[in-house]
Amino acid sequence: MDVSAATAGIATDLEAGERRRRRRRVLLGVAAGCALLGGVVWTLLPAAQPRHPAPPSAPGPAAVARGAVVAGAPAALPDLTALIGERETYLRTHPLDGPAWAVLGAAYVERERRTADTAAWPKAEAALRTALKVGPAKDPAALEGLAALAVQRRDFTAAREFGEDARALAPKRWTAHAVLIDAYDGLGDHKAVGKELDALMGLRTGPAVRARAAAVYRDRGWREDAAAQISDAAAGAQAPAERAAYLEQAGRLAFERGDREGALRFFQEALRTDPDQRAAQAGQGRALAALGRTTEALAAYRAALAARPAPEYALELGELYESLGLAQPAKVNYDLLRERVRAAEAAGADEELLLGRFEADHGDPATAVELLRAEWDRQPGIAVADALGWALHRAGQDEEALKHATRATDAQHGGGVRSALYAYHQGVIERSLERYGAARRHLTEALQINPHFSPLAAPEARRALKALGEPSEEGPPD
Predict the structure, then answer these.
(1) Containing domain of residue 246, as a range?
(2) What is the CATH number of the domain that holds 409?
(3) What is the pTM (predicted TM-score) of this model?
(4) Which of 37, 60, 366, 402 is the least crowded, having the fewest Cβ atoms under 10 Å away?
């Protein structure tokens, strides 16, 4: 081989290799520079935003229930169960967290309201009192929880005391005013109810406040205003359980004014929105019975009572059976009522009003009078005035009975609610006292307000009115 040619070839190869290495060094330098420049640029510029940012994750059931409980709104039953489990677990390792105890106690109260499980009341009271012991000595949230618990137990005096303490500590907390409305109403202090509602509406607007206003307007007899408020509340509700609760309230208002079909639609929509809305299911039974759809009504009542064994549902179902001539099923439900009342009283409840109403119509009127006199002395609300008046009539004491029955329908003393049952009671008492004109007027009013207000009492009202006959054309005597 020609050495010079080989040398030239090697030299050529070396030169070519050197050129390739120089190009590679240049490229690497450029790349490094770009990387450095890029790092500087990304450091100086804000982070690039994705074109479609991912939505924040939805809060879990416990967080949803906590938000509702703290805000004074109805909460879904599964969410409440999740919240209670989460708080119980947390407090095992953080037993000195007072606010957490307050939330747990409030959740117990709300779950009992949904389920009628009165066994939860002692647990709720223990949690709320623990909140006051280990947390702030005067925690308005814990005091409000105790006030709400007292309302559930129908201890309105205690509810007023706890509520007023909470309001004094935090006058701007609207939830304190809300629970005081219930307390004052149970005590028959209707001026105080009005003041609290004004304060509440001055502090806050929204569905929960509108629902409270609707209840107060209903008691004053302002039906159109009450219906408008609860309609707005249902439209503005944020969660299904909250909306269902307001639809159930709207259904009760519709039924009270005799709108059976409208009431049924409200109750059905409430139950569709929240299948655990048992008050709506019982209301469905009430409306179906009024429409003559008895088989469906019985099924609705039984389902509501099975899931939420409230004594008032047992009373309504028992009276429906009795109106059908079915004495044995009626007795079964009346026995259940007594059992549930005993359980509630063992848990600290005051069930004198319900038991007195039951004894007046289905038991011993003398016992009813005794129970309701004591209740009137403690808590002279409008419902107690009506029940005591009726019990006195059933016991043969009509003169005194009329005083209480008149108070229940006297708007000057807070009895502005347009109740078919109250008007019926007053009319029957007046008939017994031979005040036939007044009796005819009030019995007519009862059937005009709601011709189907009770499966037992509405037919009695029609019979009594028929027995009175038409008023004399000659007019009253001089």
Answers:
(1) 216-304
(2) 1.25.40
(3) 0.85
(4) 37
